[in-house]
Design a protein that fits this description.
42% helix, two-stranded antiparallel sheet, 5 strands, alpha+beta, three-stranded antiparallel β-sheet
Length: 106
């Protein structure tokens, strides 16, 4: 249920995903697919996720959402659905994103 709720909310955010250069990795079992906000990317084929699964997921988790920064660091990890507002507030508060937004204003 959490997975479906999270997926539905994120797939509706095409413009915001593109603007923030977000890529959603959906990992189910030992497979994953990508969504980057571009048309039809949510229909991408499932791929083998053994490395992702072994590296960041715990078999006991039935749901986990993680935000991984451009630097590769884990910025957020939680087992509850993440609202769009929480996600974008966190991202928009990061120095790199704030710099990017200031550049767009000028």
């Amino acid at each position: 249920d959490k997975y479906q709720l999270q997926s539905d909310s994120f797939y509706a955010l095409e413009k915001a995903f593109k603007e923030r250069k977000l890529i959603l990795f959906t990992v189910v079992g030992k497979q994953y697919k990508l969504y980057d906000g571009h048309e039809n990317s949510e229909q991408s084929a499932w791929k083998d996720a053994d490395k992702i699964y072994e590296t960041i997921l715990n078999e006991a988790d039935d749901f986990r959402i993680m935000l991984i920064g451009l630097d590769g660091g884990i910025k957020l990890s939680q087992m509850e659905v993440l609202s769009e507002r929480e996600l974008f507030n966190l991202i928009d508060s990061m120095p790199m994103r704030r710099y990017e937004m200031n550049q767009q204003k000028n």
